[in-house]
Amino acid sequence: MKKIKKINAAIIIIGNEILSGRTQDVNVVNISNWLNALGVKLEEVRIIPDVEKTIIKTVRETRKKFTYIFTTGGIGPTHDDITAKSIAKAFKVKYNYHPEAYKILKNYYEKGKFNVGRKKMAKMAKNASLIFNPSSAAPGFYIKNVYCLPGVPSILKSMLGGLNNKIVGGKKIISNSINLRTIESEISSPLEKVQNKYKNNVEIGSYPFFKQGRLGVSLVIRSDKLKLIEKCKKEIMFFVNKKKIKIIRNK
What we know:
12 strands, alpha/beta, 9 helices, Alpha-Beta Plaits, four-stranded antiparallel sheet
């Protein structure tokens, strides 16, 4: 029997502002939802500082483990935007101006405003391919299985669609959720039995929440097989109804 290749991904969030808490990351949500639709499972997220050695080490390590790597942040015009240069070093290739990126940026800015900082956004690893930016012109880039995107969420999100034909995924990952008015300890035992029964094909997450002064648990069922999700939900609903637990939402 032919073994099916696992298609997965990791995200490397690069930026001291994320680690310090000054900026809240939302790019993981956008990338994860996009990957789910393409049938690529996001398996790891790392947050690292703007330190060249750390970026190089992390990229080299993760690109061997995952089908796709996505980096966010550090490709802007300022002194601490060192991602592009670090990626070049990670692949041991030259870091210089990308002719097409340079042309795009030069045409985008008014005459006399294409300064040194803006020119820097056209520098990247040699032989990198561009990820076009419909929001602010400055392109991202990719080399082999590493895709480098900006840190600004609105710009990053606008660029993902341009990669649809570059990413080869599997079956679309479907997600269903059930919100219950209960606590995790009340359902942990029967939920574990359901998860163990379908552990090879279905992932069930349990997430407690506190809303309007009351506790609850959100169960998220994920798989690329709709029939198995429906079977899981049926078995979960059986013990939920048996325990007379209130269902807040079933979607």
